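Structure (tokenized):
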């Protein structure tokens, strides 16, 4: 088994926290609302896609030989993604039933009646993990649209590896997909839309190219270029416009390439190899999948007990918003830890070896 690259795991954790904060900003009166980096935090999903393409290639490109391998690979991806997706989906379904009961007994309907958007049709689309392919709206656990697209991108990746076994052939196919999807997207990468599968493919296969290129181009990157790639990515996030939406996954790819090609004693790698950051990275899938439910639940509780005002653009006063943010973050990290230790790790024991 190949050695785990912990500093990349830490970056995954930081990206997950950024997406988590992005989804809280609509409920904060001051702490995050003027933070441009957090406001544009949705783009970190594209970093997930790029990193996933690299990590999947790093771990599986030499193992995918035939269709039996592909079945095992896809099954393992399903085991990793689906169980927690199903749990969060059922939690959101329960929220809809609770809202329906409240409306039935009180006659009070909020911004939208129960089961308006999160209806049974969308439940089944989410249940079969095809919500991003057949629905233009975000439903139930909104962030789960990305795993819907990624699961089917895995399948395409596996087919390419099996039928184009030579390294250069695979890179050529990956590059063609990147170019084709960029033409389809034309810079219009958005939070989520009908092109989301192409958004995933664009970034994922950039990550694949990084992994394959590193095996071919064995060079040592100067630390200057590593820090420069960080600064360019941060600049593009802070100054996000449509055309830069496509540049950002490319920038993320260059960042990953520069990191894996640089000296192991680089300061930024030492910082990212911090145990706390590695821990956040380890539970990052839980953070990504659980956080939206926690924020929605907290908002409903605060409105119910009278400290949140749904008629306002932002629910909370400044100090209260910070307190609720910290409570929510602690809750998300704690639940993600429990999910990883007592659920995800147990489920992963059923993965197939090949």
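Design, position by position:
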């Amino acid at each position: 088994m190949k050695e785990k690259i912990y500093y990349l795991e830490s970056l995954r954790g930081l990206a997950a926290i950024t997406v988590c904060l992005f989804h809280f900003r609509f409920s904060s009166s001051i702490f995050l609302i003027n933070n441009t980096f957090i406001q544009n935090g949705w783009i970190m999903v594209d970093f997930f896609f790029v990193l996933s393409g690299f990590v999947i290639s790093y771990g599986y490109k030499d193992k995918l030989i035939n269709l039996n391998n592909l079945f095992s690979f896809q099954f393992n991806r399903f085991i990793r993604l689906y169980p927690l997706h199903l749990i969060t989906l059922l939690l959101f379904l329960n929220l809809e039933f609770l809202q329906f009961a409240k409306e039935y007994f009180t006659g009070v309907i909020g911004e939208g009646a129960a089961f308006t958007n999160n209806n049974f049709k969308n439940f089944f689309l989410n249940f079969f993990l095809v919500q991003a392919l057949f629905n233009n709206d975000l439903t139930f656990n909104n962030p789960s649209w990305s795993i819907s697209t990624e699961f089917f991108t895995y399948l395409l990746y596996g087919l390419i590896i099996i039928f184009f076994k030579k390294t250069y052939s695979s890179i050529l196919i990956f590059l063609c997909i990147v170019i084709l999807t960029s033409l389809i997207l034309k810079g219009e990468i958005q939070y989520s839309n009908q092109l989301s599968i192409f958004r995933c493919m664009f970034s994922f296969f950039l990550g694949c190219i990084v992994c394959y290129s590193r095996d071919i181009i064995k060079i040592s990157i100067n630390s200057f270029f590593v820090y420069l790639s960080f600064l360019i990515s941060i600049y593009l996030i802070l100054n996000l416009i449509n055309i830069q939406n496509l540049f950002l996954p490319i920038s993320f790819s260059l960042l990953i390439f520069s990191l894996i090609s640089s000296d192991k004693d680089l300061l930024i790698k030492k910082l990212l190899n911090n145990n706390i950051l590695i821990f956040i990275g380890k539970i990052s899938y839980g953070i990504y999948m659980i956080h939206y439910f926690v924020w929605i639940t907290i908002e409903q509780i605060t409105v119910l007990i009278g400290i949140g005002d749904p008629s306002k653009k932002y629910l909370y006063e400044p100090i209260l918003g910070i307190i609720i943010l910290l409570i929510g973050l602690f809750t998300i990290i704690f639940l993600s830890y429990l999910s990883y230790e007592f659920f995800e790790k147990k489920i992963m024991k059923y993965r197939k070896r090949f």
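Reviewer-requested clarification: DSSP finds 15 helices and no strands in the chain. The radius of gyration is 21 Å.
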